[in-house]
Design goal:
Elements (H helix, E strand, L loop, with lengths): L2 E7 L2 E9 L5 H7 L8 E6 H16 L5 E6 L8 H13 L7 E6 L1 H13 L5 E6 L2 H7 L4 E6 L2 E8 L4 E5 L8 H18 L1 H9 L1 H5 L3 H21 L14 H10 L6 H18 L5 H13 L11 H9 L4 E2 L2 E2 L1 E6 L2 E5 L4 H10 L3
Helix pairs in contact: 3-4, 5-6, 5-9, 6-7, 6-9, 6-11, 10-11, 10-13, 11-12, 11-14, 13-14
The structure holds glycine (GLY).
The site of glycine has 6 residues, from helix 5.
Length: about 375
């Protein structure tokens, strides 16, 4: 059942994305990278993964590497900051990590982004391997080399583009992922269909039962198709000069909602609300029909994603969106649908248009 997706960076082969149902092949792929057993490993994880799976992963690395340490921080977005990075630097220094040594990100998006950023900056760059455990990190954040942390309430404000050496996912871990986190990942997956492939969006609709009951083959096919879409986009535009910005569909308003709700909603839920608002504007501009718009909302609801939010003010959402780093020369680069399965960047929306989109998702 295993699947491999090669990823190039600037037209050269760079790393593999490996989809497996267990960790049995992990060391084969790690050894393929030519590492010596004397190179040190630091597995970076969070408190949830530490309790559940760290020992298993550590013993796999222990079977080859002479020194394997771990660093764990408290699970959640609150830890995604420079304080945690500093603690990790300190740990690496105490254990004499040098340029040959390797970080392993074992967790969801917060762990992957923070570990990648530490790897990018410690000693001006050391290798890192992604072992994403949440659906969202498997289909999105582990691929494409975006690393970073939040800064003073600004999400992902400090970071670097830095590619992993390997992305290895054990899809069986999804069987025990909390339901809300699985649904959060569905936000990014449905996004991939909406921005790039109507056929994939339709496939998601027809395979709803199998996906939501976590049938391994359906989940593997879904993750595989999403990783292919993400891979193609980041290969074409690794540093987000153009096409990669399409992946921000639903994110400009989504990030603002995430911030204004104090991160009490999951990222994918906020993206779902942001996509609902962007779909509304796509309909208002005549790109998609009323029926297509209503169907998008129905599909989101069916997969458990919210399409509206209460307790927030439209003006606040607009202002926070304007402080997002996706602004260019004071303008929001807003992503809209040209059609279902095809997105484009619209940098010319007026505040009035944005307010109407925001109001469409306020309860
Ligand atoms: N998560 C969006 C990107 O990787 O560009």
């Amino acid at each position: 059942m295993s699947k491999i997706i090669p990823v190039s960076y600037e037209s050269k082969p760079c790393y593999k994305i490996v989809l497996e149902q267990d960790f049995e092949q992990l060391m084969e792929y790690v050894k393929e990278l030519g590492y010596r057993s004397s190179q040190k490993i630091c597995i970076v994880t969070d408190s949830n993964l530490e309790a559940l799976h760290l020992q298993e992963l550590k013993s796999i690395f222990d079977s080859y590497f002479e020194k394997v340490i771990s660093f764990s921080f408290s699970a959640g977005e609150e830890s995604k900051n420079l304080d945690t990075v500093q603690k990790l630097y300190e740990e690496l220094i105490i254990h004499h990590f040098d340029r040959q040594d390797i970080l392993v990100a074992f967790g969801g998006g917060v762990v992957g982004d923070l570990t990648g950023f530490t790897a990018a900056t410690y000693l001006r760059g050391i290798d890192f391997i992604q072992i994403p455990t949440s659906l969202l990190s498997q289909v999105d954040s582990s691929i494409g080399g975006k690393t970073g942390v939040d800064f003073s309430q600004y999400k992902n404000m400090v970071g670097a583009f830095y590619q992993p050496r390997l992305v290895y996912m054990n899809l069986s871990l999804l069987q025990t992922l909390p339901k809300e986190q699985f649904i959060s990942g569905m936000g990014e997956i449905l996004k991939h269909g909406l921005i790039k492939s109507k056929a994939y969006f339709e496939w998601m609709k027809s395979n709803y039962e199998a996906i939501m009951s976590l049938e391994p083959e359906a989940v593997e096919e879904m993750v595989y198709q999403s990783c292919l879409i993400k891979r193609n986009v980041v290969e074409n535009d690794p540093k987000e000069k153009g096409e990669r910005a399409l992946l921000n569909f639903g994110h400009t308003l989504g990030h603002a909602i995430e911030k204004l709700s104090d991160f009490s909603l999951f990222h994918g839920q906020c993206v779902g609300i942001g996509m609902a608002a962007a779909a509304y504007l796509s309909k208002e501009l005549g790109h998609i029909s009323e029926n297509e718009y209503m169907e998008i909302l129905d599909v989101f609801k069916h997969f458990g994603l919210p399409v509206s939010v209460s307790g927030l003010l439209a003006q606040d959402i607009l202002e926070v969106s304007k402080s997002d780093k996706k602004m260019v020369a004071g303008k929001i680069k807003f992503i809209l649908l040209e059609a279902v399965g095809c997105a484009y960047i619209n940098p010319n929306l007026t505040d009035g248009q944005l307010m109407s989109a925001i109001e469409s998702v306020l309860k």
